[in-house]
Amino acid sequence: MELHVRYEGDDDPKKCSARKLARFDLAELHRATRSTPPGVVLNPFADRALSPADRADPGDGARHDRLVALDCSSETAEREAFDLQGIHRSLPFLVAANPVNYGTPFQLNTVEAFAGALCILGERQQAEDILSKFSWGHTFLELNEEPLRRYADCADSTDVVAVQDDYLEAE
After folding, report:
1. H runs (alpha helix) in 70-155
2. What span, in angstroms and rounded, lies between the C-alpha atoms of 148 and 60?
3. Strand arrangement, sheet containing 66-71
4. Are 116 and 148 within 8 A, CB to CB?
5. 90 or 8: whose pLDDT is higher?
6. 67 pairs with which residues across the strands?
């Protein structure tokens, strides 16, 4: 799958996973919303959860073989995410493995968001490939092994939310 990032550049460049993906030609950065191509937009504010069903193309004009993430500060995230073209989907319950947010649910950095989405969409090898560029990358898959497997087995967003609810009730 193609990986694209609407990149604000308002974070520490040394800790930015999106910039590192771009350095390895694993993702393309876009400095403006207009230049960011449509696709499946990973938007934490979206009403529907990402599911394997989002891999199919319902004829809405968005590329379903393209993931789009937003890399910006939390202050601009909601405003910027709504401007991106494509189908907007939120990621279900996953736990961060990055050094800044280790162990914190829903606090994924860009590479973790892409990896989680890729696993849910049946692209596990690509998820492993992008995470391999980070010393802690394998830990993300280890921490989330069971939920990622369960989400990938779901038929649609409703099923994904039901699986997520199992994890949230256990918290």
Report:
1. 74-83, 110-120, 124-131, 137-143, 145-152
2. 26
3. 28-30, 2-7, 66-71, 39-42, 86-89
4. yes
5. 90
6. 3, 40
